Description:
- This protein has helices spanning about 15-20, 75-85, 95-105, 170-175, 220-235; strands at about 25-30, 40, 40-45, 60-65, 90, 110-115, 125-130, 135-140, 145-150, 150-155, 160, 175-185, 185, 205-210.
- The chain has about 240 residues and is of the alpha/beta class.
- The chain has one domain: Glutaconate Coenzyme A-transferase (3-Layer(aba) Sandwich).
- The strands form five sheets. A three-stranded parallel beta sheet has the order 1-4-5, with no helix packed on it.
- The longest helix has 20 residues, at about 220-235.
Amino acid sequence: xxxxxxxxxxxxxxxxxxxxxxxxxxxxxxxxxxxxxxxxxxxxxxxxxxxxxxxxxxxxxxxxxxxxxxxxxxxxxxxxxxxxxxxxxxxxxxxxxxxxxxxxxxxxxxxxxxxxxxxxxxxxxxxxxxxxxxxxxxxxxxxxxxxxxxxxxxxxxxxxxxxxxxxxxxxxxxxxxxxxxxxxxxxxxxxxxxxxxxxxxxxxxxxxxxxxxxxxxxxxxxxxxxxxxxxxxxxxxx
Length: 238
């Protein structure tokens, strides 16, 4: 289970790359989308910004809300795998996906959602009417491993996030047997302001520190963002 969105600031890129380099196969991968990272009209290669798309070729099943690397990307690994029957695809909405993860992390048996009623998404799901409206039962999602991206951790595993990175990572951290956090900095216990801790250490099993200014670090992503924006703006002026 791993988060990815847009440019990939909240994506644990080094953990994804390490999994790929390890050669693990027959994966079941849960992620919001399997697309290349992008900013405006600029599409980044997987060498520049690593996304769950890198693991598509190693997956036997993916659970996602967005399986197509739309017009941006030329990587058709997932699409071709699904079309060829090599990869099983479970499609859901973005909202239902993270709520299913939240349910898994909270020990709930599922929830009823109106999303997908009357479409192919209702196939095989329990349907019931509540106050005159149809709903589908969405079951919880858990994983063996969750990869999360945080900004800072203490040695106990308490996590602090930065900006939009906080979006879904804290929820994903709750819903796995083993949660591994990729962070920019690790400090001693007591150095983090308790009011800033979002994910408590009870949910975190491993911490991996990104090399200073290294691939996927906050400084690396900020530099990539500034350089890309400068190029895009210069192109507009021309």
